[in-house]
Amino acid sequence: MVLHHAAAALDWVMDKSLVLGYTRIGPALRRAWWPHDPTPGALVGRHVLVTGASGGLGLATARGLVRLGATVHLTGRDASRLDAARSVLLEQAPLADVVTHVADVSDLAGTAEFARDLAAGVPRLHAVVHNAGVMPRQRTTTREGHELALATHVLGPHVLTYGLREPLAGGRVVLVTSGGAYGQRLEVDDPEYTEAGRGDYSGVTAYARTKRMQLVLTELWARDLAPDGIRVHSMHPGWADTPGVTDSLPRFAAMTRPLLRDADSGADTAVWLAATSDAIGTGGLWHDRRRRPTHYLPVGVETPEEIEAFWRFVLEETGVPAGGAGRDLSPGT
Ligand SMILES: NC(=O)c1ccc[n+]([C@@H]2O[C@H](COP(=O)([O-])OP(=O)(O)OC[C@H]3O[C@@H](n4cnc5c(N)ncnc54)[C@H](OP(=O)(O)O)[C@@H]3O)[C@@H](O)[C@H]2O)c1
Questions:
Q1: Is 162 tagged catalytic?
Q2: Domains of the chain from N-terminus onward
């Protein structure tokens, strides 16, 4: 018991220090006390979809799922990168069942169509890991007119999750978010970041704002999809050495490289959330297999009105209604 409390205290200090918790030091120490690994073969016969799986954390997540026996569906925007990722996985596990799909999650109409096709071919889906991510260099809009980070991290995942609601019944949804969310409030006045018209768009801010939105979305989805038996969690990977970090944050990557965790350690909690048989409820934010607060300080916490405005915005922009027609998700219900 004393050891348990000491581990929890040390884990808390590491989380708050960022460097101890987010880097390779995090899993190296926490492994000593974090929950046990999923049972070998836990995912045999189960299908799991991982978006943005042609490299970085998505590929590492796919590798972890393949190790547990899952049939893994990989998405990405580029067929040759997906083929290369599949080859890497098959080199490591020649008998693995790995299926690739070219699908751009920021394209809402295309994502709805992809979900329809997948649902027709895969009647039971154990889990979806929403991993695809982007940090735009300048304000970019999709062909449907949405700001790219918003479409990739929020609107597209909403379309995909609800498009797969039937095959996902009784299954799991994992959103890969970022510690960057801690630095942002829920943005409801200008979710499309149109203030860029005045020349002050920042891709880092757009990224972090939409990662905050993912935390709120996790709680909304968890409540809305509970009647379908679908459990929803988000996780953040810490700081992992991936092409995304090297390309989008080259100075950060250069400064921190010796401390960055590898992609498999970054992906560990996403794999664990998809596979664990532990009773972990729904609607949580996780990092290194432990539930974490969604705010470090009690300031800047989204109000019920802001959450409602955000939910209305997501439903209107995607045209995808909530699970129970008209189900009231206002906080407190
Ligand atoms: N690495 C970290 O330290 C870190 C920290 C916090 C959070 N994260 C989160 O972890 C996730 C993965 O990050 P990463 O570092 O592995 O990034 P990455 O190396 O850039 O990989 C991103 C993956 O997403 C795919 N992708 C991008 N846009 C897509 C779209 N519209 N539709 C489908 N696939 C798309 C990319 O493939 P194509 O370009 O071929 O489509 C690629 O496979 C992101 O959500 C990121 O926010 C990472």
A1: no
A2: 39-318 (3.40.50.720)
